[in-house]
Write a structure and sequence with these properties.
heterotrimer, A: 672 residues, alpha/beta, Rossmann fold, FAD/NAD(P)-binding domain, 5 domains, five-stranded parallel β-sheet, 25% strand, globular, C: 146 residues, four-stranded parallel β-sheet, 4 strands, 16% strand
């Protein structure tokens, strides 16, 4: 016979007012297997907990039911109390007679009857509870950081500084991300490269950071503390171990007309190239699409059409035959920091929800550019050496119109959210422009100015009040080429007047979107993402850098539009989470996971199909002589999160979720 | 028939299989045959009386059959769907079975009936079946077959039942299940019921009471049919095996109709097509959810 | 006997809910002091994915007049997909039950999020009212004599 203790809490008046707690205790006390039943004013108080502890010791209880508030409130409290008196904490459960009873009913009789039912069901369940021990799993003290922008760099450096090892994967030839393209940064107007490049070099030189540039995550297996990640190292056609970054290959490459991705196609590069002079690693990549040799091979030429770079290389580092290779890294934690891309106003859109801007010429008017292109024009290391020239004819624009919220905050164009960074960088752009073109006029069409942040409002006010930017509240209905100028047809909603401006150049603050391919990466990592592809945090307020998968963290603009300080703060937060994880020798996890009764399992693997975490494995069962008996399901306790979908799906009920076994639920239903 | 016997004999002679599971003439019509010697292949027959779904003998639960060694099995299109089900659900490996697919023009209701098909004698399921030959086979045997007589009496029965009030349906099934003796023949004969221990035999806890009263029988049939949803190949064996004549196919067929309507899924003999329960689409209809 | 007959029928309803959304939503209803009918008994499960049709059958066997299954809205599942599996499972189960004569009016399926205390109250009240109008599930309960 079990010996269950029932402890009914009055919660002051909260429960006692509508539920006859003494009667609940009395009736439960008469239930077979209940060895002890009392009611008390405040069960969660010290004296209340002492009642529980004493009863366990004195009455030899083998199960405890506390009828009080929601288990979400105090289950941990009472389990700890039980643990302190030597009772396995998983033999203690709560019946919720406050939130689910006394607070929502006025009829004392009905509420008392319900409280008795609810408590009886939990008593019957607890009779069938089993002692459980926390699951301990080892932790690999190595982290994978995906994305080498400022967020990834910060996370990698913080983790490495904290003693962890880091594998940093970047899909582009160099780390640095979008921040390396920026000219100056708001609200201080300090040079982006000046603050970023030392951090990039630090990453490269750090003894605990392994940098895998021009690489992508191919597959992810395992679970928190024990991930196994397969990484594709894309073929550079350059042997990284031999190259010393001298640049000879670039200088001899005959194709010097390739649009430069780094310069947002406003500048040119060679076919074999380093994206920018400060690139890390400073190792070129051969772009096969633009290379005469590979173009020739694709056409079936018998002899290679070029090979100048290979001849020029003194280190014999160039290898035209190089193929993609794969490495596998074992890591304990993963930080996703893949950053953003800008929405394009063109006709071709990745999803039907997103619409381009026909009214702005679908991106086909040459002097209508986006914010990142303007950054390159304003950058001292950019294609114009920092002189503002318009792309079509190189003329210095005397009038620039900046349009905010292009794509953002416009459900009709497919994006409802605010891209957050645009108000600030447009203000910055007007200033950079006016610093370079003193007689230039900068107009800004805006919906609202969102400048919440330290020094941010001061910054936008400075653009308007001190630096002469003309802000017009309203939208632009149409952009039209008219000879040398672009006609900007807008409305100033504050004066109620239509406005037409002849602009030399138009800069669009286009929406921030997650990187292409984020969905497939998220699926590999089993983390969730929203309708736009931004990674979902585990909780919007309380767990902002965790994801739905334990051990996978998120930082920067892949989670939502973020500026640099936010991205860095998030990256440091994620790094702290990783280091917290690494500070344990082993991980302790809740033991409420599924286990398979292998002798009953028929191996139909319905459980494998429904498991959201891929926790079900196939295990061969052999007899004493090593002959295969059958293949049965096995649940990896490290991966299982305890949803129990497997058990409801299993036709023979050969898998059981600990803490919510069929016997426990059956008993609870029977008692109601 | 000659072709079937030749292939069976050759498979046995070559040692490619140890047993050929087919049909033979029995005292009460066509019955299952287990041929292990090449000369016995002459016993094999195939005609419209070959009602039984032989896929059930491939289930690992049939240890005495599995113990004979690698099997070849004669399979009508509906039998092939069951074999595909067993492969899909990891009970049988494709390479471990030789499938002798037969073209099928429908079968009679009982193997004791004469082999000629009329609207009267044709099995309910064949009356609406559109599959004349399996696509899952190693050998495809026989001439192309004509369509069986089209009958829809079972569909009409279902429609009529669904016209009634829930209370009337409950009364109908209570009456039917009153007769159930819980022999579990419906389970034993089913090719897709292959659990080592059925949930109905579980004692900790007892979800389904083992005694044969209507309450337990309701629980049993609801559970059995639920487990068959999207998996049932409509071979009709459960109803045929029922010694007290409960119209079990009304349940399985109605469930199949619902599954098809909701998820666009029909049982198929392609093992790579997943059953609809155990997978999902994020935009599945949820008109019944508040 | 006359007193027996005049005593109003109070339905017994068992609710199977997930821990993360509906149970928390029901907690919120409590903390918001939303009054609702006392006929519903909640059984807490980690996820709707854990809810087995056998639970519903057992509840009816044990005299429930109605049942509620409630969990997280699509895309909100704490375990990412348990509710999607449950949705398919119960889409089919309710039709099987309907075929066998278990009035679908006796079963409520709902998505109630952790912030929808109001909705939980409505689900509870509406189900209770609906089942009260149907009357006791005597058909099933009368099967119980064995």
């Amino acid at each position: 016979m079990p010996r269950i203790g029932v402890f009914v809490c009055h919660c002051g008046e909260n429960i006692g007012r509508t539920v006859d707690c003494a009667r609940v205790a009395r009736e439960l006390g008469e239930l077979p297997g209940v060895a002890h039943a009392v009611d008390y004013k405040y069960m969660c108080s010290d004296p209340g907990q002492r009642l529980v502890k004493q009863a366990i010791a004195e009455k030899g209880l083998d199960g405890v039911v506390v009828a009080a508030c929601s288990p979400r409130m105090h289950e941990r409290t009472f389990r700890r109390a039980c643990s302190a008196s030597g009772l396995n904490p998983y033999l203690c459960e709560m019946a919720n007679i406050r939130e689910h009873c006394s607070w929502i009913h006025e009829d004392r009789q009905a509420a008392t009857a319900k409280a008795i039912d609810l408590t009886r069901a939990i008593v019957e369940k607890v009779k069938r509870n089993r002692p459980l021990e926390p699951i301990r799993i080892p932790v690999e003290k190595r982290a994978l950081v995906i994305g080498g922008g400022i967020a990834g760099i910060q996370a990698a450096l913080d983790i490495a500084e904290g003693g962890g090892e880091v594998v940093l994967v970047e899909k582009e030839p160099s780390i640095g991300g979008h921040m390396s393209q920026l000219s100056e940064t708001f609200p201080t107007l300090d040079c982006s490269q000046c603050i970023l490049t030392p951090r990039m070099v630090e990453v490269y030189q750090h003894p605990r950071i392994k940098l895998l540039a021009f690489s992508e995550v191919e597959a992810v297996g395992g679970y928190i503390g024990n991930f196994e990640v397969k990484i594709r190292r894309k073929a550079r056609c350059v042997d990284e171990t031999k190259c010393n970054g001298c640049g000879e290959c670039q200088s001899v490459c005959p194709n010097k007309k390739v649009p430069s991705e780094f310069d947002q196609e406003l500048g040119r590069r060679t076919a074999i190239y380093v994206p920018f002079p400060q690139a890390v690693p400073n190792i070129p990549v051969l772009d096969r699409e633009s290379c005469a040799l590979f173009k020739g091979r694709a056409k079936g030429f018998k002899e290679d059409a070029c090979g100048k770079c290979k001849q020029a290389c003194g280190r014999e580092a160039i290898d035209f035959e190089q193929q993609d290779s794969f490495v596998t890294e074992k890591v304990g934690a993963i930080v996703v920091a893949t950053g953003f891309q800008l929405y394009s106003i063109g006709k071709d859109q990745p999803t039907p929800q997103l619409k381009g801007y026909g009214e702005y010429g679908y991106g086909e008017i040459p002097d209508v550019i986006d914010g990142l292109q303007f950054e390159r024009l304003a950058s001292a290391s950019g294609p114009t050496g920092g002189v503002i020239k318009r792309p079509s004819d190189g003329k210095e624009p005397k009038t620039i119109v900046f349009l905010q919220c292009i794509g953002s905050r416009d459900a009709a164009k497919g994006i409802e959210y605010c891209s957050k960074i645009c108000c600030m960088y447009v203000a910055k752009h007007t200033m950079l422009y006016r610093h370079k073109v003193h007689d230039g006029r900068a107009y800004v069409f805006y919906m609202d100015i969102r400048a919440a942040g330290k020094g941010y409002d001061e910054f936008t006010r400075r653009a308007i009040e001190k630096e002469g930017a003309i802000y017009l509240r309203g939208r632009v209905s149409k952009l039209e080429r008219a000879g040398d100028v672009i006609k900007v047809y807008g409305a100033d909603t504050l004066s109620g007047e239509p406005v037409t401006i002849d602009a030399d150049m138009v800069v669009l603050a286009t929406a921030v979107r997650p990187q292409p391919g984020i969905e497939s990466l998220a699926q590999k990592l089993s983390i969730s993402y929203d309708a736009h592809g931004f990674i979902n945090e585990a909780h919007p307020k309380l767990r902002p850098v965790e994801t739905s998968t334990a051990g996978v963290f998120v930082a920067g603009a892949c989670q939502a539009p973020r500026d640099i300080p936010d991205s860095v703060a998030m990256a440091s937060a994620a790094a702290t989470k990783v280091l917290g994880l690494f500070s344990n020798k082993e991980l302790e996890r809740e033991p409420t996971v599924a286990t398979v009764n292998e002798s009953l399992c028929t191996g139909c693997f319905h459980c494998e199909r429904v498991c959201p975490y891929g926790a079900v494995e196939r295990r061969e069962l052999k007899d004493g002589e090593g002959n295969l008996n059958k293949v049965a399901a096995h649940v990896n306790k490290g991966v299982c999160q305890g949803c129990g979908t497997c058990q409801a799906t299993c036709p023979s009920k050969s898998v059981e979720l600990q803490g919510f076994t069929d016997e426990q639920i059956w008993a609870a239903i029977n008692a109601l | 028939m000659k072709e079937l016997r030749q292939i069976a004999a050759k498979l046995l002679t070559d040692g490619a299989v140890k047993v050929v599971i087919g049909w033979e003439e029995g005292p009460r019509g066509a019955r299952a045959a287990f041929v292990t010697r090449p000369e016995d292949a002459e016993r094999l027959i195939f005609d419209a009386r070959c009602v039984q779904n032989l896929a059930t003998y491939l289930s690992p639960r049939r240890r005495h059959v599995v113990g004979l060694g690698k099997a070849a099995v004669v399979a009508k299109p509906c039998d092939a769907k069951a074999i595909a089900g067993l492969i899909r659900e990891s009970q049988v490996k494709r390479e471990d079975v030789v499938i002798l697919g037969v073209r099928c023009g429908g079968v009679v209701r009982e193997p004791t009936m004469p082999a000629s098909l009329t609207a009267e004698t044709v099995a309910d399921r064949c009356g609406i079946c559109e599959t004349r030959e399996p696509t899952l086979y190693d050998h495809l045997i026989g001439e192309p077959q004509p369509e069986p007589p089209r009958v829809t009496r079972r569909e009409e029965q279902i429609a009529a039942l669904m016209q009634k009030t829930p209370q009337e349906r409950f009364a109908f099934w209570s009456q039917q299940l009153e007769r159930c003796i819980r022999c579990h023949a419906c389970r034993e004969v089913c090719p897709m019921c292959f659990c080592e221990q059925c949930v109905a035999d579980k004692t900790r806890p007892v979800w389904i009471e083992s005694s044969s009263h209507p309450r337990a029988n309701f629980a049993w049939q609801m559970t059995r049919v639920m487990h068959q949803a999207g998996r049932c190949v409509d071979c009709g064996e459960c109803e045929r095996a029922c010694p007290v004549g409960i119209p079990l196919n009304l349940l399985t067929r109605y469930t199949a109709q619902s599954v098809e309507k909701r998820f666009g899924h029909k049982p198929s003999d392609d093992p790579s097509i997943a059953a609809p329960i155990g997978t999902f689409r994020s935009d599945d209809s949820q008109e019944f959810i508040r | 006997m006359a007193t027996e007959e005049t005593k109003a029928f109070e339905p017994k309803i068992v609710a199977f809910v997930c821990n993360w959304c509906t149970y928390t939503g029901a907690d919120l209803a409590g903390t918001s002091r939303l009054q609702m009918s006392p006929n519903v008994r909640v059984v807490r499960l980690p996820c709707t994915g854990r809810i087995d049709p056998l639970f519903l059958i057992k509840a009816f066997e044990r005299g429930a007049d109605g049942v509620i299954v409630s969990g997280c809205h699509p895309a909100d599942c704490h375990y990412t997909a348990g509710n999607y599996h449950a949705r398919r499972r119960f889409a089919v189960f309710r039709e099987i039950a309907d075929m066998m004569g278990v009035d679908n009016q006796r079963m409520t399926f709902s998505w109630v999020s952790a912030s929808e205390g109001n909705k939980w109250r409505d689900v509870v009240n509406e189900t209770t009212e609906r089942v009260r109008n149907l009357g006791p599930f005597t058909e099933y309960q009368s099967l119980s004599r064995d």
